What we know:
The protein is built from three helices and eleven strands, in the order αββββββααβββββ. The chain is globular and about 60 Å long. It has 209 residues and is mainly beta. The two termini are 22 Å apart. The protein has helices spanning 30-43, 127-131, 136-139, and strands at 47-58, 67-76, 80-85, 91-95, 98-104, 110-115, 140-147, 151-158, 165-171, 176-183, 187-198.
Amino acid sequence: MKRYLFTALLGLSFLTWPAHATKTSKVPTEVDLQLGKLQSAWDALKSFQADFTQEVSSKAMVGLPPDVTTGVISVLRPDKLKWESKTDGSFQILKGHELQVVHKNQRGTTLVDIYANIGRAAGAKPLNFLTGKAKFASIYTSTLIAQTPETVTLKLVPKDGSRETYIAKIAKAGYFLETLTTDTEDTTVVIKFSNLRRNLTLDKSLFEY
């Protein structure tokens, strides 16, 4: 399960509203307002790095502790991502639609799995969050779960009928993910982000293997 990633960031559709709503105008809800603020923040991000801790729990193995991975995520928008695990030395590189998964087997041999279409890689859907491709207002039904002065938590369900559900806890200071939880029929993946570095100069060679 260590090869799941989700890793976690977000490309959300920015919502703007007229200063004076009329009777026929849609009055923005709190969810609309939070998505708009989040979109604006993500639009300003050209690149970022963050530390992560990922916990993967299997629903078929009730009672077992989660599989924990720590590492670093690097993103160069709009379509480059590197997910480096400090736990087992593996890493994953996303370039456009192509995903490269580099890891070692029990004999210590380095293996490279290449997926020409990321959609065929197991557990790869949340990469759209991290590279900023997803347009949340268009493709997700959003629900406000909780809100404090410091954070807002949203539930995101795909409108296309996909069965995964996302729970995004967002820090209002900068509107960046604190935690992304992905829930499917088989697993629950929780990723916590920390030590965010925004708009770095990332060499494109970082995303080559």
